Amino acid sequence: MKQTTDKGFFMDEPLIFERSSVGKKGVEPCPSDVPNHDAASTIPKAFLRDAGDVLNGFPEVSELDVVRHYTRLSQWNFGVDTGFYPLGSCTMKYNPKVNEDAARLSGFTGLHPYQSEATCQGALELMHDLEAYLCEISGMDAVTLQPSAGAHGELCGLFMIAAYFKDKGAPRHKIIIPDTAHGTNPASSALAGFKVVPIKSGANGLLSPEAVKAVMDTDTAALMLTNPNTIGLFERDIKEIARIVHTKGGLIYCDGANMNAVMGLARLSDMGVDCVQFNLHKTFSTPHGGGGPGSGPVGVVKKLEPFLPVPRIRKKGKRFTLVNEIDRPKSIGRMKAFYGNFSIMVRAYAYIRRLGAEGLRHAATTAILNANYIREALKADYQLAYDTPCMHEAVFSDKFQSGFGVSTMDIAKRLIDYGFHPPTVYFPLVVHGAIMIEPTETESLETLDAFISAMRSIAAEAKTEPELLKNAPSNTRVSRVDETKAAREPVLRWRP
Amino acid sequence: MKQTTDKGFFMDEPLIFERSSVGKKGVEPCPSDVPNHDAASTIPKAFLRDAGDVLNGFPEVSELDVVRHYTRLSQWNFGVDTGFYPLGSCTMKYNPKVNEDAARLSGFTGLHPYQSEATCQGALELMHDLEAYLCEISGMDAVTLQPSAGAHGELCGLFMIAAYFKDKGAPRHKIIIPDTAHGTNPASSALAGFKVVPIKSGANGLLSPEAVKAVMDTDTAALMLTNPNTIGLFERDIKEIARIVHTKGGLIYCDGANMNAVMGLARLSDMGVDCVQFNLHKTFSTPHGGGGPGSGPVGVVKKLEPFLPVPRIRKKGKRFTLVNEIDRPKSIGRMKAFYGNFSIMVRAYAYIRRLGAEGLRHAATTAILNANYIREALKADYQLAYDTPCMHEAVFSDKFQSGFGVSTMDIAKRLIDYGFHPPTVYFPLVVHGAIMIEPTETESLETLDAFISAMRSIAAEAKTEPELLKNAPSNTRVSRVDETKAAREPVLRWRP
Amino acid sequence: MPYVSLSDKDVERILKTIGLDSTEALLGTLPDDLRIKDKLDLPDGLAEQELMALMQGMAAKNFPVGRGGLLSFLGAGAYNHYIPSTVAHLAGRSEFYTAYTPYQPEISQGTLQAIFEYQTLVCQMTSMDVANASLYDGASATAEAVLMARRVTGRGRVVLSGALHPEYRRTIKTYLNAASEDIAEALFCTEAGTTLVEAAQAAMGDEPACLVIQHPNFFGCLEDVSALAEAVHRKKGLLIVVVTEPVSLGLLKPPGEAGCDIVVGDNQSFGNALNFGGPYLGFMATKTEFVRQMPGRLIGQTVDRNGSRAFCLTFSTREQHIRRERATSNICTNHGLCALQAAIHLTSLGLSGLKALSEVNLSKAHYLRQRLLETKVCHAAFSAPLFNEFTVRLDKDADAVLKRLLKKGILAGLDLSRFYPALTNHLLIAATELNSKDDIDRFAEELSRA
Amino acid sequence: MPYVSLSDKDVERILKTIGLDSTEALLGTLPDDLRIKDKLDLPDGLAEQELMALMQGMAAKNFPVGRGGLLSFLGAGAYNHYIPSTVAHLAGRSEFYTAYTPYQPEISQGTLQAIFEYQTLVCQMTSMDVANASLYDGASATAEAVLMARRVTGRGRVVLSGALHPEYRRTIKTYLNAASEDIAEALFCTEAGTTLVEAAQAAMGDEPACLVIQHPNFFGCLEDVSALAEAVHRKKGLLIVVVTEPVSLGLLKPPGEAGCDIVVGDNQSFGNALNFGGPYLGFMATKTEFVRQMPGRLIGQTVDRNGSRAFCLTFSTREQHIRRERATSNICTNHGLCALQAAIHLTSLGLSGLKALSEVNLSKAHYLRQRLLETKVCHAAFSAPLFNEFTVRLDKDADAVLKRLLKKGILAGLDLSRFYPALTNHLLIAATELNSKDDIDRFAEELSRA
Ligand SMILES: Cc1ncc(COP(=O)(O)O)c(C=O)c1O
Ligand SMILES: Cc1ncc(COP(=O)(O)O)c(C=O)c1O
Fold it and tell me: Which of A34, B109, C252, D150 matches a 20 to 30 Å C-alpha distance to C74?
C-alpha cells in the first residue's frame, strides 16, 4: 500500500475580521435577570470605554459564520489524526480519544482551584497518584506537577538546583550543556541565572566522561543532558559521567523529553540523575494542541525535595490535602498560579492506567523497534548521522543529497506532497542538515513502509528531478511560505 | 467577498479491509471478570461459528488506523459546516451545536426504552411538550412522535386515513397526488394500499380547485399535497380545495417537509389540513447525518386522533405516563419498536425552546427573504420556472442554458468548483431540468452574494466555455462519477 | 434572533433588491385569512446558556442506565453496550453529520465509502451477499422484509414466530393491515422457549411467502435456524431471520450459513446508545438474486471519469424518487449516521474484538443466570441454549419484585406479562460486558431479599 | 497492547529487516546494569471500558461547580463563565488539537491563521499594537513581562502592587530569585482597596524597571491606571497592567489607552473551563517598539511563492531554538489550543456579545453585593469601584461561615486571610453571568442565616 495524496478542494476563507459586517450577531450572552447596573453610576467615566467604541474592528459575525470559519481553517491543518507525523524529539504518538473524554468529564472541568479540599478529593487523589507513577517510572523520589511544559519544567528544576546550592551556602554559577541539547536547555539555564558551559559530544554522538571531566568544576551546579539524547542514542556512559559530576558536588539534570524510549526499560535514578522533567504531551500521549498546552512535571531525588514548588499534595490517612509554603520554607515558591495543567494530567493519568507497566514497556520497545526499522531501511539512501543502533529516533544528514543542490528543507517539503508531515529538520545543530525521524510506537508497519518508500522516491528525485523538491510542496493550499518577508516586513495583526 | 476553493490535498485512504492485516488489534473489549463460559458446553456445535472462522475478511486494524481512516473519509465530504448547501426541499439550515450537546447528555442517551415510567419522567415530559409545540405550530389537535423520517410519517398518516375510513365502515381506495409531489408521496400511498390518482398543477405551478373537483370522488380518501409546494409556491387556493375534498368526505394530507416557510406565519389547521408530517431534520434544525436519522412526527385533527400509533403520552397531574393499545382500540398499532427517534426529538425541542415563537417566525420570514433575493438576482441568467414571488425556495429551469449543450447536471457539478453544494436538480419533475434552490434563513448575505456571483459566472461560462461545465467538477478528489456503471456492473460490497 | 445571519442593514439591502419596502410586504403571497395574527403560544426563546441549563434540568429528571445511575439488566431489543471512544469522536466530525444523503458523489465520497464498508461488514457478519445502507429500526426493517418476501414469492401468507419481538410483530401487522392481513402466528414451545417447527409448518399453509423468526429469539433462546429454514423452503417460502442482538454474530453460525434468505434486525448494539429507544439501526441483508426487490439505499462501487475507484448511490430505480408508486419502499432519509457509528464500533473492535465481545457477553449471561437461579427465588423458564439474554420464572409477584429492586437502583428485567399474558411472573433478563461481576452478585443478593 | 499498531507478524518482519532475532536483542544498546529487571510497580493496564469507569469514578469524587454541583462565587483569577457550544465543537476538531506547533506553515495554515486572529483580538481588546500567541498562564506571563521590562529599560528594580494576585507575586519572585531580587511592594490603600500612588512612587526609587498593577485588582477594585502610568513614566519605567478578568475589557477603558506599556494576564475567562486551575491562557500585548524583547511565539502575515497571503511563525530570532541562552525566554510549547478556544469564544460573542457580557457581569456583581450588604452580616471592605468581583468584611469568623455555606452547596468566596493575614474575615466574592438572581438570593439568604 502506497500512501499518496489526492487532489481535493479546500474552501477558501478570509480572516474573521474580513467576514465581519456591522450589526451581525453571534452567540449573544444570557440577558441579565437582575436590575441593570449603569456603569457610569459607579465607575468614573475616564475608566470606561467611550460609548460607540467598536474595539478597533472587533468581529461581528453570525454563529454559522464562526462554525464555517474554524471548520475550514481546521481543514488546512495536518495533525496526527490526519497522517504520519514523524517529528523527531516531539513524540507525535496517537492521542487516545478516551483520554479526551476523561478530561472533559464535568467532575474535572468544573473544579475551581480555590474550592475547599473536601470538595476536590478526586482531583487531588489523581494528582497524588500521578506523582507516584512518575516517581516509579523515573525512580525519582518526588515529583511536582506544577510546570506547564517541558521548558517550564527545566526552569523549575534549575531554580531548585540553584536554591539547593544557595541553601548549602555555596551558590554555583555554571551549567554544562552538550552541543546536541535542545534550545530550551541553555535558554532555561540562562533564565535561571546560570552561565552556560557548552561541551562537545564525541564523534559517536555520545558524551564522553573525559570531556565532562575536563570542564566539571566546583562552580558547576549541574550537567544538563538528554537521555536518550537528541541524536536518538543512549548515553552509555551516563553512570560514569554522573559519578564525575557528583564527585565535584554537582548534580545531573536530565531533559526527559525523550523518555518514551526508556519508560519501563530503565530508570533515571539508576543512571545517577538528580532532576528530570517529563513532557506529558510527548511521552504520555496528551495531544500537542497545535502548540500546547502541555505539562512538564519535574522529578527530583531526595536532596532536592525540600525545594519543590508549593503547594505539595499530601495524603493523610484517606484524605488528600495541600501543603503550603509555611510548612515548606525551602520551596522555590511557584512556577505559576494554582497547581499546573490539570486537564493534561488527567489525560496522562488515564494513559498510564490504560497501559500499565507492561503496556508502557511495550510502547517503549515498539518505539525503538520502529525507529530502527526506518533507520535500517533508509540508510542506503540517506546518510546516517551516526552508525549505531538508535533508540526512539533516527537522525540522518543531507550529505548524500546536498551535492544535487537539494537541501534538507527541500526534502522535508517534498514529503508533504507524499502525504507525510516532515521530520524535525536542522536539529540537532551538530548534524549537517539534520533529518530527525521519530516514528513512535503507534504507527503501523504499512505506514512505515509507505513513508520509507516516499523517502526513497525523494532520494531518487533529488538526483533526477531536483526541481520537484525545490518547488515542493506542490499540492497544498499555499506553496512555500516566505518566512524572511514575515520577519522583515512584520505584519503581526490585522488592522481595519 | 468571493467564495472560491483552493487547491489542497486530501490524504488517500483505501477501504478499511485493505488496511487490515492479520493479528492486528483495535479497541479490545473488557476482559470478562466472571468464569469463562465455554459456548460448546451449552450450544450445539451446529449453531456455532466454525473455529478459525474469520468472518469473510472482517477487518483487523489498530485504533490509530481507525481514527485516521474515518478522519480522512470525513474530509472527502461536504456538509453544512463546510459551506453553503442550497439543496432545495431539504432545508439544509445550520445545525446548532448546542443541540448536539443537549442530545448527548447522559440523562438522555442512557435511557432504556423499557425502564419504568417513574425513572424517565424528563424524557416523557420532553416528548409531551414537543407534541404540544408541534400542535401549536401546525394547529393540529394531536401529534405522534413515532415515525422515523418524513416518508415514515407519510406512511403513518396514510395508515391512519385508511383506518379512519375503514372504521366508518366505508373504506376508500384512492389518494389524489399532484404531479409536483415528492416521490415519497406516491410511494407511501401505494405502501398504505392506496391507488394513486395523479393530478396536474396549473400553468402557474399551483393546484386549481377545478382540477381537484374534477377528480375528487367518494372513493378518494385524501388529497395529498405539499404546502408551500415543491416549486416553492404557496397554494393560494388551499382553503377552497380543502372545502371541495371535505365536501366529498375526503381528507387533506399535507406533506409538511416545507414547513420552514410557514412556521409562525400560518397554521395548517386554518388551511383545512387534516394530517401532516413534520420533518424535524429539516424545519427543526436537526442534522441530516449524511442520510439520517431524521424524525417524522405526524399531526392530526381530532377525528383522526383515535388512530394514532401507540403508545401515547399522557400527563396525569404532574406525572407523565404511556397509554397502550388496550386503551386505544382504534390505534393503527406501531410504525416501529419503542417511541421514535428520541435523540432527534431532543434536538428539535431544544431548537424550538431556543427560538421561541418570535424566533420561529423570524426564521420563516428570513428564509423567504433569502429565497426571493436569490430568485431576483438570478432570474436574468436562469429561467424562472414560474414568475411569481416564492416562499422558501426558488426553482429555475435549464432553458436558457440547454441551447449551449449544457445540462442542469453540468451546472450543478460546476458549482462544486466554486465551493458550493449543488441545489436539488431534476426535481420537481414538472420543471425541465429543474434547479431548486433553498438557501434557508441561516445564510449570510455575503454567502448569498458569493453564490449568486458563482451562478452568474456559470451562466456566462455555459455560453463561452461549456467544456468547463461538462468537465466539472475539476478540483474534487474524484471527477464525475460513473453512476451507470455502478448500476450495470454492481459491486455492492468488498470481497477478499 | 439566534441562527439568523442577516443584520438589519442586510435585510434592507435584500428588500431593496427585491423591490419591496418591508418584510410584511414580502409575506403578501400568503392569503390574508390564513396569516397568524398574533404570536404562537410557545415559551419565550432562550439564550444558549439558559437553554443548556433547561436541557440539563430535563435530563436530570431521568435516571439513566450507567455509572451513578441505574444498574440495568434490560435487553429485549435494546442493549446496553460499551461504545468505544472512537465512535463519538469520528462520527461527530461535522463533515459527516451535517451532510445530506450523498446525492452528489463527487463531494460525498466520505459517507459513500464508509457506508459501502458498513454494507460489507453486515454481509461479513451475516454471511449474506448484499446488505443495504440502513433502514429505520429492526421492527420496520422486519416489516419491509415481509413485504419484500411477498414481492419475491408473489404470495401473501406470512408466518410470524410467537417468539419474535412483540413490538416487531405489531409493526408488521400495522404495515400489512393496509394490504392484506394474511398473517399467522407460529407458537413457541413453552418448554424449550423456541419456535415449534410443526406449528410453523401448520401455520404456513401451502403457499407461504415467508416465515419470520428471531435468533436469539425474544426470550433469549437460540432457534434451530436450519430446521426452520428447511421447513419453509420445503414450501418454497423464504426464511427471514431477525437479529436484535447482533453481538451474538461473533459467536453464532451466521444466518446465511443456516439457510436464511433475508436477515434483518437492529444493529443498535454497535455504536448506538440506548437513547430511550431511538434512533436505532435497522439493517437488511439478502442474497444477490433478491437485490432488486430490496428496499432502501444501496452504495455501489464504480469509477470516475479518470477510472479511479469511486462510490455512489445505486439501483435507485427501485426507489421512490424514480419509481414513485411502484418503488420497493417509500424510504428516503434512512439511518446513515447510525450505520456510520456501527461501522466505527465494528472496525474498532476488529475480528478478535468482535469475537471476544461475543464471548464475554455469553459468559456474563451464564454467570448471571446461575447466580439468579442459585437464589431459588426464580427458576429457568426455558430449556433452549442462550446467548446473553434469558427468561426466568419468579415465585413472587413480578411487579412487586421489579419495584423493590428498582428501589435498590436495579432494573431487573422486563415483565413478560406485558406482552404475553400467559407468562405471568416471567422476567426477561440480559447481561452484557457492562455488567460487572460485582453488579451481578449485587443483583442476585437483592433479588434473594426481594 | 493498547495503541500499538504492529501485529506479531509485523514485529517479526521488522526484526528480520534489522537483522535481529528478538526485541530483547534490540534493547542491547541499553547498558545491562541500567535495565529494569522486573516490571514497574504500577497498577495493571485497563481495558478502555474499565478505564472510563475508573475516570468517571475519580471525577465523581469531586464536587464541581455548576448544575447539580456547587454554586460558586469564587473568582480570584479563575472565573466561571458560560462557554458557548461552538468552542468545544470547533477546537475539538482533531486537525487542530493533534497538530504540533506550526513549524511547517504549508500544512499548518489553520492554526496559524487562527492564532494570528487571536493576536489581533487581544490587541483589539487591550488597545495595544502587538500580542503574542500565548504564554502559560497569567502568573508566568507577568513574570515574563517583568523580565521583559528589565531588558527594555536595562534596569533592575521591580515594584509590585500589593493588590496584585498573591500567587502572581509569588511566581514573579520565584522567577527573579535566580537573577536579582530587586523587588519592592507598593501598598494598597486599606480604605479604597487600590494601589497607593505615593506608595508606588516611593517603592520605585529613582530607576524603576517597571510597576506592576492588576486591574481590576485582586480585591476586585478598579485601579486608576492613568495616574499610576504617569507616576512610573515620570521615572521612565514601564507600566505593566495585569488583567485576570478580561471580560472587564468589554466595558473598561483598555489599558493601551490608559498609558500601559505591557498588558499581561489570563484569558481563561474566554473558552477555557475552570479545570482546577489549568491549563489557562497567559497573554501578553505591548507596543510595537518593544516587540523584539517580547517572549513567546508570534505569528506573522506573509506570502507564499505565488504571492498568496500566508501565515508563519516569525521573529524566531528572539527564541530559544535559534538564540539559545540569549533568547528572550525559554518558552517553547505554549498554550495554543487555549488561545484557539478563547478566539472561538470571542468571535462567537462578537462585538455586541462581548459588551453585553461585560455589562451582565457588572450588573450581577452589583446586585450580589447589594444583597449581601443588605444582610448586615457583612460590610463593604473597600470603596473603590468594581467590575464583577469585590471584597466584604464579615462580622463572624470567615472560616466558619464558609463551612456552613458549603454545607448548603455554596462556595461563598475566598478567605483573604489565606494571603493577607491582616484581612481576617474578609471574603473575596465574584459573580458572573452564570449566577442567576435566584442563586444570588439564595446565597444572601443562607449568608444571613450562617
Ligand atoms: C529534547 C527537548 N527538550 C525540551 C523540549 C521543550 O519542551 P516544551 O516544548 O514542552 O517546553 C523539547 C520540545 O520540543 C525537546 O524536544
Ligand atoms: C417534499 C418532501 N417530502 C417528503 C420527503 C421525505 O422525507 P424523508 O427523507 O425524511 O423521509 C422529502 C425529503 O426529501 C421532501 O423533500
Answer: C252
**What is the C-alpha separation between C53 and C74, in angstroms, rounded?**
30
Question: What is the residue-wise DSSP string for C305-341?
Answer: TTS-EEEEE--GGGSHHHHGGGSS----S--HHHHHH
Largest Cα–Cα distance of chain C, in whole Å? 82
DSSP category for residue B9: E
Q: CB neighbours of D53 closer than 8 A, spacing ≥ 6?
A: C67
Q: Give the sign of the dihedral formed by CA D142, CA D146, CA D151, CA D152.
A: positive
Separation in Å, CA A18 to CA A21, A71, A496 = 8, 17, 9
Beta strands in C86-225 (DSSP E): 130-131, 157-161, 183-186, 208-214
For residue B84, what is its C-alpha cell?
453553503
* Distance between CA atoms of residues C5 and B444, nearest Å: 5
Which H or E run contains D145? helix D138-153
Q: End-to-end distance of chain A based on CA atoms, in angstroms?
A: 50
Is it the case that residue B1 has pLDDT exceeding 60?
no
**What pLDDT is recorded for position B52?**
84
Quick one: which H or E segment has residue A275?
strand A275-278
Angle at C174 between CA C168 and CA C175, to 5 degrees: 90
Kindly compute the dihedral angle of the four CA atoms of residues B280, B283, B288, B291, in this order, to the nearest 10 degrees.
Answer: 80
Is residue C302 within 8 A of residue C312, CB to CB? The reply is: yes
At B412, the amino acid letter reads: A
Contact between D280 and A340 under an 8 Å Cβ cutoff? The reply is: no
Distance set, CA A229 to CA A232, B97, C196 (Å): 5, 46, 73
8 Å CB contact of C49 and D82: yes
Residue C209 in contact with residue C150, Cβ under 8 Å?
Answer: yes
Alpha-carbon gap, residue C420 to C443, rounded angstroms = 25
Which residue has the least CA distance to atom 9 on ligand 2?
A: C333
Helices (H), D235-335: 320-323
Q: Could you tell me if D228 and D203 are in contact, meaning their C-beta atoms sit under 8 angstroms apart?
A: no
What pLDDT does C450 receive? 84
Q: Name the residue among A73, A113, A114 with its Cβ closest to that of D113.
A: A73
CA distance C34 to C42: 19
Looking at A318-444, list the stretches that DSSP marks H as alpha helix, in order from N- to C-terminal side. 342-378, 399-402, 408-417
Positions in chain C whose pLDDT score sits under 50: none
ipTM higher than 0.85? yes
The interaxial angle of helices B408-417 and B445-464, nearest 10 deg, is 120
Which chain D residues are closer than 8 Å to C89 by Cβ? Answer: 94
- CA-nearest residue to A417 within chain B is B9
Report the C-alpha gap between B185 and B452 in whole angstroms: 32
Q: How many angstroms separate the CA atoms of C356 and B178, rounded?
A: 55
Is the peptide bond preceding residue A428 cis, with omega within 30 degrees of 0? yes
Distance CA B458, CA A369 (A): 55
Report if pTM > 0.90.
Answer: yes
Distance CA A260, CA A255 (A): 12
The single-letter code of the amino acid at A31 is P
**Phi and psi for A28 in degrees, rounded to 5?**
-65, 140
Q: What is the pLDDT of residues A411-442, one digit of tens each?
A: 999 999 999 999 999 999 999 999 999 999 99
Q: Which residue has the cell 442586510?
A: C10
C-alpha B256 – ligand 2 centre gap (Å): 9
Measured from the Cβ of residue C399, the count of other Cβ atoms closer than 10 Å reads 14
Whole-number Å distance between alpha carbons of D63 and D80: 15
Alpha-carbon span D119 to D111, nearest angstrom:
12
Torsion, Cα of A437, A440, A446, A448 (10° steps) = 10
pLDDT in tens, B325-334: 999 999 999 9
Q: Which residues line ligand 1 (CB under 6 A)?
A: A 89-90, 149-151, 182, 184, 226, 230, 255, 257, 279, 294, 296; D 332-333
